[in-house]
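call fold(seq) -> tokens
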Amino acid sequence: MKKNLLKYIFIIISILFFLIIFLGIFGFETEKFNSQIKKKINQTDKNFEVELKKIRLTLNPLNFKINAKTIAPKVFYKKRIIELEYIETQISIISLIKNQIISSKLKFSTKLIFFKDLIAFARVITNKPELFILERAVKNGQIIVDVDLDFDETGKIKNDYKIKAILKDGKIGFLKKYNFEKINFSLNVRNNIFNFKDLNFKNSKSSFFSENIKIIKNKKDFFVEGQINNKDTILSEELLKLLNINISNIEFSNTNFNSENKFSFLIDKKFKVKNLAIDSNIQVNESDYKIPIILNKFFNIKNNTVKIKEHNIKSNYKNNNLVINGSGKIKVNKNFDYLEYSVDLKDEDIVLKSKLILSEFKLNSQEYLKDFIPELNENIILKDQKIKINFDNRKLQVKGEGKVKFENYFEDIKFNVSKIENKFNFNSQIDLKETLLKIDFLDFKNNNKLKTQIKISGNYNTEDSLHLKDLSIINKDNKLIIRNIFLDQENLIEKIDEANLEFFDSQDKKNKVLLKKINDNEYQINGLVFNADKLIDNLLDNKKNNNSKLFKSDFKLTLNIKEVYLDSKNIINNLIGKLNIKNNEIHTSDISGDFDNQNNFKFTVNTNNIGEKITTLYSSRAKPIVSRYKFVKGYEEGYLDFYSSKKNKISKSQLKIYDFKLQELPTLTKLLTLSSLQGIADTLSGEGIRFNEFEMNFTNKDNLITIEEIYAIGPAISILMSGYIEENKLISLRGTLVPATTINKFIGSIPLLGKILVGDKTGEGVFGVSFKIKGPPKKLETTVNPIKTLTPRFITRTLEKIKIN
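ret:
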């Protein structure tokens, strides 16, 4: 009996064992619980409906639960449908015994469905604003979603849920500028942590990919971190809009780059981004940058384009602090140069450091430089330049050194420029060994055999003025130093503290003068010697620029120079005097000096209360001034007296020159002088044609000189002339030229008076001639007519001069 009982127990246990194994492995299908499941779902939400097929049940003996799984169910919610691949759950055996379904776990997976349909279905269930925005943004894409849920004893979902999703060929577009396509990723969600794996997408022609992006949901916000990379991407306008970068004033083209970007940030309930941190590594393979036109005035850049290639850029942004490090090649002119830089930006504070090594670089030379470097090339070439740039908290500093070529040889250059707010500070040095440096108004040229060092330091305020603290040109034999000169925004001189000039000019004459500021509007020039030869030439050649403004304020100037060269032979000793400058014109002056014990020089200007300016110049040596006019040849001796009155921009002047000689006169004048014995003697002896007096009365207005009268009388010839000269356009003169024999004959024929003035003997003279000279300055035409009767005007002027003499 016991044996049979044990046998039956064993058989039952075996049957149960095999049954458990069978149910655990194969299970069985039934529709018995379908109605209960539908009822249970409907009790949760009346809008939920489910279409179920047979449910396969398998036993899980360890948990004393049954796994239930159905294939291809359909879920409906307010007429929206989602087709599922399967639904799987665990049901307590006890609940089945009690004919109740209590599930502790639920798994389901969707079929490959449209992403937009899934969002629409979710939005029907819970109409959150982010789902509304997402539904409008999604344009395409298919997705599979796997969901794994655990329930507590009350049937609520636990927080250890798991979601997996795979998106293929997605497309999103919103706010017009955010458009993405070819979106693919896998998503794992667990415990409010969203993990995106193998993400890739495109924007326009730009492709991006990421191995991992993580989103962590907290109570109040979302924390996002991950990395996004790109490869062989073209920088396009669409991409710049995506990155919210506005570079409307900068044009990039043909930009190809790779990048690796790590990032993290917080998004609050109001969708505001906080605590943004970005760590990027960018490789710019190649790029063309079109520079502003203003820069091409200085840089000789082909097609206004700078080319960049092989640039490695690393950036890090965290806690409102951005750090960028980069290096690579840059091509501005002909060659690719090396550039290395770093940027540290925090809030509004920026620290920028960079180093640029230029193999060769061209700058467009400026016209004003040719005033100082006459043989200046069309392009200034910089070579082997090492430039460091540092920008820290709105402070910019640029340091550099290398080679520069102005003409045919490379010279050494160093420079240092810093900027604080609107103020620039600069300090530069150029060492010239082969380059010709010229300062025309001082007649200075550097000696190419001597090293000449040029130093410039100062500051510039964009809202105020240019301050040159130190401007010096120094070599073994010369020293030109200017200290503290201030220029306003119109480049007018506001003030200058000191100019110390000790140099040899191109005539190998020593110059030594010192200009020094006495007070705000008063200066003095003291010196041992100064060669004014070139300065006088420049003043005479640039009359039309005499009214150009040079000084901003009125000032007074005191002169005291021991020796002043007017030319190579004539020296004024002890030149002293005072000048009062108003509105960039001489208002008053009184300057005097001595040629020797018997000859002197004096220049005065006086302006009266009615605005009339009276100018006088007396020089007992006229040659240093008269001989500067090119049409006057072989001028000798004589003294000069000049008077001018100017009012309302109209000047009336009188120039007188006494007792002088001319060794060369026009052919017509020479022929007439040969008609007198005195003229033949003067010409053959080489002494020149003598004149007792020359007087010229003329009026200036704008560019027109009206010559009321030019009268010259001498022992051999006399001239009377009038006309006008329109500067650089037209010359029109007419006059009478008469040899002295004709004058003597005429005067001798006057009863009683002729004998007294001339005597009984008069020569057999020839008649004089009248002439006209007219035409442009370089194409003058002269017409000559003999005259038998002298004009009354000529006779009157001759008699006046004879009586005076």
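The two ends are 183 Å apart (CA to CA).
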